[in-house]
């Protein structure tokens, strides 16, 4: 069997791969009544609610995600031009408290260091440094 005889079969299978992998499926239907503008105030309020309610069930159960969450909230507030509403000194102190003796960073106090959370801590520190320079 030569390669030329296999080529049409190969291209046919690639073109129809979306059928098997279900790429074209519409998984979300947005109603016409849905908001058509970005509600920045609601986003800012949600982030502040998460920061202020430190003893809430959601906050306690997601403690292992805290360092990454700080990074994403910090970035979201910056994108929305609301970074001045964040207590950057408290964030910097929290990141310092999460540093472990081995040099890595934990996702929260009294947790073990992990590469992912070390990356998030470095990103948070770089963001805070950059924001101070502005």
General description of the model:
- With 134 residues, the protein is an all-alpha fold.
- It is 59% helix and 0% strand.
- It is built from 7 helices and no strands.
- The radius of gyration is 23 Å and the shape is globular.
- Its cofactor is Zn(2+).
- This is Geranylgeranyl transferase type II subunit beta.
- GO terms for molecular function: metal ion binding; Rab geranylgeranyltransferase activity.
List the helices and strands and how they pair.
Elements: H1 3-15, H2 17-21, H3 40-52, H4 57-61, H5 66-79, H6 88-97, H7 115-133
GO molecular function: metal ion binding; Rab geranylgeranyltransferase activity
Pfam family, one: Prenyltrans
Family: Belongs to the protein prenyltransferase subunit beta family.
Helix content: 55-70%
In whole angstroms, the N-to-C terminal distance is 66 Å
Largest sheet, if any?
Answer: none
Low-confidence stretches: none
* Count of discrete domains: 1
Summarize the structure.
The protein is mainly alpha-helical and 134 residues long. It is 59% helix and 0% strand.
Keywords:
0% strand; Prenyltrans; single chain; zinc; 134 residues
């Amino acid at each position: 069997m030569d390669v030329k005889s296999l080529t049409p079969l190969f291209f046919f299978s690639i073109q129809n791969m979306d059928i098997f992998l279900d790429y074209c499926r519409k998984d979300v239907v947005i109603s016409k009544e849905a908001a058509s503008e970005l509600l920045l105030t609601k986003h800012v309020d949600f982030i502040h609610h998460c920061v202020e309610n430190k003893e809430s069930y959601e906050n306690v159960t997601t403690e292992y995600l805290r360092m990454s969450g700080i990074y994403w909230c910090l970035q979201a507030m910056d994108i929305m031009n609301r970074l001045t509403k964040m207590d950057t000194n408290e964030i910097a102190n929290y990141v310092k408290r999460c540093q472990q003796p081995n040099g890595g960073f934990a996702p929260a106090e009294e947790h073990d260091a992990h590469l992912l959370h070390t990356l998030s801590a470095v990103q948070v520190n770089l963001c805070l440094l950059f924001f101070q320079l502005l």
